[in-house]
Amino acid sequence: MINRTDWESIGLSNDFLFGKVMSDPVLCKELLEMILPELDIERIEYPELQKPIRPDVDARSVRLDVYVRDGKGTVYDIEMQTTDTGELPKRSRYYQGMIDLQLIDSGQSYKKLNRSYVIFICLSDVFGKGLHKYTFENVCLEDGEVRLQDGAVKIFLNAASNRQDVSQKLCAFLDYLAGKKTDNTYVEKLEDAVRKAKMNREWRHEYMTLLMRDLENREKGREEGLEEGIQGMVEALKELNISAQVIINKLQEIFHLSYEDAQKYV
């Protein structure tokens, strides 16, 4: 779901605009090299922005901000997160599972699963330890030297940290997201890319279209939730042998329904 902010006032921390800026393979590659300096990333292939993943009709769909591969087939999902919803660790687990479903087809060997990184860029400290970077891999609790080696890595970046625990370039990037002034060539390139992106009429129209769609879906969800709430209350009152007239009165009082609308549920 995109951040609900006016197009003219959004910055790089807006997930939609972040995705558009990262459509430049050079900028995206440089960011990944800052986050993962130990990797040798030759090139970025097939950037996909706001990539939708819908596994089946019953499962919850997701829309990834930036989904790319490098020249070796490693997959990277980069997510911009402006607020701590309290569910990011479990969301990273869900995203990882959805990505894996896209990587191999039915009947293929699990060995075909690419190495993958799910990266959340956060404006706040999700884990409260003051680090700029939290990296997670599956490790044996009984022996920390034993790793599962399933190829799945999850990283959470924290723009609110004041430590010197990452490279100056990555620190400058995170400071920029946090609204701090910083002299850095990469940040300057990002600022230029943001200015150009906001002049793109097609992207502005796409942003507004997605915004309206998200608002409509949210309103639909509220309506469906209200409907379930009313039906559940009516069933409970009927089981208690409450008269139809009392139920109607309660529906009018609690849900602010007209007499005619309340009567339809009884």
Keywords:
single chain, 2 domains, 6-stranded mixed β-sheet, about 45% helix, globular
Question: Would you mind describing this structure in some detail?
Answer:
There is one protein chain. The chain is of the alpha/beta class and 266 residues long. It folds into 2 domains: 7-199; 215-263. 43% of the residues lie in helices and 17% in strands. The protein has 8 helices and 6 strands, in the order H-H-E-E-E-H-E-E-E-H-H-H-H-H. The longest helix has 39 residues, at 201-239. The relative contact order is 0.11.
List the helices and strands and how they pair.
Elements: H1 15-21, H2 25-35, E1 44-53, E2 62-70, E3 75-81, H3 88-103, E4 116-122, E5 133-136, E6 152-158, H4 168-177, H5 185-198, H6 201-239, H7 244-255, H8 259-263
Parallel strand pairs: 3-4, 4-6
Antiparallel strand pairs: 1-2, 2-3, 5-6
- Order of strands across the main sheet: 1-2-3-4-6-5
Low-confidence stretches: none
Shape: globular
Q: Can you give the helix content as a percent range? A: 40-55%
**Count of individual domains:** 2
Query: Which sequence of SSEs, written as H and E, runs from N to C?
Result: HHEEEHEEEHHHHH
Report the sheet with the most strands, covering strand number, pairing sense and barrel closure.
Answer: 6 strands, mixed
Oligomer: single chain
What separation lies between the terminal Cα atoms? 37 Å
Q: Beta fraction of the residues?
A: 15-25%
Number of strands: 6
Mean pLDDT: 85
Count of runs of 4 or more consecutive helical residues: 8
**Helical/strand content category:** alpha/beta
Q: Rounded to an integer, what's the Rg over CA atoms?
A: 23 Å
